[in-house]
Amino acid sequence: MSASNSSEVGRALAEALAAVEAAASLDELKAARIAHEGDRSPLAQASAEIGTLPPAERAETGRRVGAARSELREALSRRQAQLEAERDQQVLVTEAVDVTLPSARVPRGARHPVTMLADRLSDVFIAMGYEVAEGPEVEAEWYNFDALNIPPDHPAREMQDTLFVAGSEGDSGMVLRTHTSPVQIRSLLTRPLPLYVVSPGRVYRNEAIDATHSPVFHQIEGLAVDEGLTMADLRGAIQAFVDAMFGVGLRTRFRPDYFPFTEPSGDVAMECHVCRGASAKPGGEPCRVCKSSGWIEIAGCGMVNPRVLVACGIDPDRYSGFAFGLGVERGLMIAHGVTDIRDTMDGDVRFSRAFGMEL
Ligand code: DAH
């Protein structure tokens, strides 16, 4: 273009202003700036040409080109300010934080219902002066069976579907403990008499999983050994336990049973806490919880077999004791109407949450 040609300068300015106006973003404006204000732009070239013009034309042309360039500069900075304001407005919208929205709460963890119940059961006995005793889950057969008066050829070993583990402890093979009763032996061998302990813990059986069976579950064991303990003390302890768990007023029933480590042995049932026995009476509404028997079996129990005391070096003429054992999942199912034991193991918080969020 020719700097002295006023219409060319005018056109270059018009094109430049149109490009500035058309720039829809800061990037586009930057491109327009380079094209129309940069060193190689028509107006910059026109400026550069001024020195080559005849002296008479320089002043006039200089003013015109200068005016065009300053108009463009102003247009650029106006558009720049506009686009920056639009961008800032956009940022305010897209990056807005509504501080009044409810936060995405990460729920705090809580103990599992089985753990909570095992703790509650333990607490009932702790309140009566018992101590908590624990034992290993991989247990020597001697503790799990022999010392509990279950010798190798005893049919009682078949009562419990044992999972055997490679290895040995002394002469004894190893098993996953099938019950918490071996903790009785460990306690008798290590603690001074008189002795009152509860032992909650996990136990294992070689069983297929179904609605009422699981190869892994929890038991809680109780053991008292003292001078002069009788079945009356056993019955009292069980009754106190039922009172604490279900409220005062439910009767307990003891019937003969057989366990090698207790003699005599019994099974404990409590009056059904749902129908209170009404379903078993003539004309009573059927009860699903006790299957209309009026009673719910909750524990095995008995007077510690003197042979167990002897195996632990305790004089059975001086000391006697009682013991009991019950299933924690079973207790949870009875107390809360859970019909499938698998619900207690799935780890689904929708199940656990219903039991509260105790830490
Ligand atoms: N250990 C028994 C079982 O798992 C339960 C049991 C019965 C424990 C009688 C006891 C007891 O302490 O006295 O089947």
Strand-helix topology:
Blueprint: H1 6-22, H2 26-37, H3 42-49, H4 55-94, H5 113-126, E1 131-132, E2 138-140, H6 141-144, H7 156-159, E3 163-169, E4 172-176, H8 182-190, E5 195-204, E6 216-226, H9 231-246, E7 252-259, E8 262-271, E9 295-304, H10 306-311, E10 320-327, H11 328-336, H12 349-353
Largest sheet: 7 strands, mixed
Q: Give the CATH topology of the largest domain.
A: BirA Bifunctional Protein, domain 2
Tell me which ligands are bound.
3,4-dihydroxyphenylalanine
How much is the radius of gyration in Å?
44 Å
Strand content: 15-25%
CATH superfamily of the largest domain: Bira Bifunctional Protein, Domain 2
Secondary structural class: alpha+beta
Q: Roughly how many Å apart are the termini?
A: 84 Å
- Write the element-wise H/E pattern from the N-terminal end onward: HHHHHEEHHEEHEEHEEEHEHH
Q: How many strand units?
A: 10
- For the residues shown, what is the average pLDDT? 92
Q: Which parts are unreliable, with pLDDT below 50 for 5 consecutive residues or more?
A: none
The 3D shape can be described as rod-shaped
Q: From the coordinates shown, what is the CATH architecture of the largest domain?
A: 2-Layer Sandwich
Q: Supply the number of structural domains.
A: 2
Descriptive overview:
The chain has 359 residues and is α+β, with helices and mostly antiparallel strands. The chain has two domains: 6-94; 113-353, Bira Bifunctional Protein, Domain 2 (BirA Bifunctional Protein, domain 2), CATH 3.30.930. It is built from twelve helices and ten strands. The protein has helices spanning 6-22, 26-37, 42-49, 55-94, 113-126, 141-144, 156-159, 182-190, 231-246, 306-311, 328-336, 349-353, and strands at residues 131-132, 138-140, 163-169, 172-176, 195-204, 216-226, 252-259, 262-271, 295-304, 320-327. The strands form two sheets. It has a seven-stranded mixed beta sheet, sandwiched between helices. A three-stranded antiparallel beta sheet has the order 2-4-3. The protein is rod-shaped and about 140 Å long. The two termini are 84 Å apart. Bound molecules: 3,4-dihydroxyphenylalanine (DAH). 3,4-dihydroxyphenylalanine (DAH) is lined by residues 179, 181, 221, 259, 262, 300-302, 323-325.
